[in-house]
Design brief:
Blueprint (H helix, E strand, L loop, with lengths): L7 H4 L1 E3 L10 H20 L13 H6 L8 H8 E6 L3 E9 L1 E5 L8 E4 L6 E4 L11 E7 L2 E4 L3 H5 L9 E5 L2 H10 L1 E5 L5 E9 L7 H7 L10 H10 L1 H9 L5 E6 L16 E4 L9 E6 L6 E7 L9 E8 L1 H8 L3 E10 L2 H8 L13
Parallel strand pairs: 3-16, 4-10, 13-15
Antiparallel strand pairs: 1-2, 2-17, 3-17, 4-9, 5-9, 6-7, 7-8, 10-11, 11-12, 13-16, 14-15, 14-17
Helix pairs in contact: 2-4, 8-9
């Protein structure tokens, strides 16, 4: 890995409690088992960006999960996994959901906001192909003459910069709703005839994500009780001109594809409400289970890292998925929980990592470099 890379190994890893002591319910264990089983093919073929695991580390658990019955899920996790803390283990969890907004496949009165597919001229560049020091770093942009330049930011796209470059999948009725659907990454369009069109994240323009909620708090725009997504939406609707300018400060812009299945996470598998979570793959192996012990009971329990997100960066940062519907929207929109994260890794992982480091073999924790 590149020197100074921000990964779980660089943060340091400490042993946690025995998995059998984690207070997961039978229902959480079974849901987690099913999600882990679904993730196993990806675990067995992906390179773990956190540096914690190798593909072979997961083979025993992935073989065993095939024959585990619903009533044996807690035993399965206790027998096959060990809990660790990455860095100080202090977790911060937010929530996301699958929104449903008004949309139309054709442009018509009341449906004027374009929802774009991937532009024809958007180029992904893997910088690791040019330098070992840039491994796992990617950029997006477009070719302009003989130069590679940044892709247009949100304001320019909304002003028509994509005309002739990107297909319009559908048209939304409300710019605020499609802004937040971009943040969620997938959603449902309720069409004028009552049918539903599902869309999911395809890619984005390569610009950094800026959370407008933080901007609004820093500028004193949100009063007491307005810090939730619902409070932010209310302010944007009450202040349309200022709200449009504020949304444009988030230069990141998401492009979609039509889905024929449930929303897909970064691993390419459907995500499940109250089970799947987005995380930073530099610190949590995609597909790994994690137990969150938080100051919100509804978010405390077993989750499986099956997704990523532009705003989900750093050790112990999780975005929990709550499914679709009004309850999911209310829960995800107000989710802001803190506590401790225990990452579940195949048994023997810590011992292997400790024995591999210089001077290792003493069974101690992986030290922070």
């Amino acid at each position: 890995m590149p020197p100074g890379a921000a990964t779980a190994l660089a943060a340091g890893v400490l042993p946690g409690p025995r998995v059998a002591e984690l207070p997961m319910t039978d229902a959480q264990a079974e849901a987690g088992r099913a999600a882990f089983a679904l993730s196993c093919p990806g675990l067995m073929r992906r390179t773990d960006g956190s540096g914690l695991t190798r593909r072979a580390d997961w083979s025993a658990a992935c073989d065993a999960v095939k024959t585990v019955g619903a009533s044996q899920a807690r035993i399965f996790f206790a027998e096959r996994f060990e809990a660790v803390q990455v860095g100080d283990g202090r977790a911060f969890a937010t929530g996301y959901y699958e929104p449903e907004i008004a949309g139309s496949r054709e442009r018509r009165a009341g449906y004027e906001v374009p929802i774009y597919a991937r532009p024809d001229d958007l180029v992904d560049v893997d910088l690791g192909r040019f330098s070992d020091e840039l491994k796992r770093r990617k950029i997006r942009g477009r070719v302009e003459g003989s130069n590679f330049v940044p892709y247009p930011e949100r304001a320019r796209i909304e002003e028509g910069a994509l005309e002739g470059r990107a297909r319009v999948l559908a048209w939304a009725a409300d710019p605020v709703e499609i802004f937040f659907l971009q943040i969620q990454g997938s959603g449902r369009l309720r069409l004028p005839d009552g049918s539903v069109m599902r869309i999911g994240y395809e890619t984005q323009n390569g610009r950094a994500y800026t959370g407008i909620g933080k901007l609004m708090r820093d500028r004193g725009l949100l009063g007491p009780g307005q810090a939730s997504m619902q409070g932010i939406v209310g302010w944007l609707r009450a202040n349309p001109a200022e709200g449009r300018a504020l949304m444009r400060e988030n230069k990141s812009f998401v492009f979609f594809r039509e889905l024929t299945t449930a929303p897909l996470g970064a691993m390419g598998y459907p995500v499940e409400g109250r089970v799947s979570a987005a995380t930073d793959p530099n610190f949590t192996p995609l597909g790994a289970p994690v137990f969150l012990s938080l100051d919100r009971a509804d978010a405390t329990g077993l989750w499986v890292a099956q997704d990523t997100g532009g705003a989900i960066k750093g050790a112990n940062r999780y975005d929990t998925f709550w499914g679709a519907g009004r309850l999911a929207e209310a829960t995800a929109g107000g989710m802001s929980a803190r506590g401790t994260a225990f990452l579940l890794l195949p048994k023997g992982t810590l011992e292997r990592l400790n024995s591999a480091r210089p001077g290792g073999g003493d069974g101690g924790a992986i030290a922070t470099p």
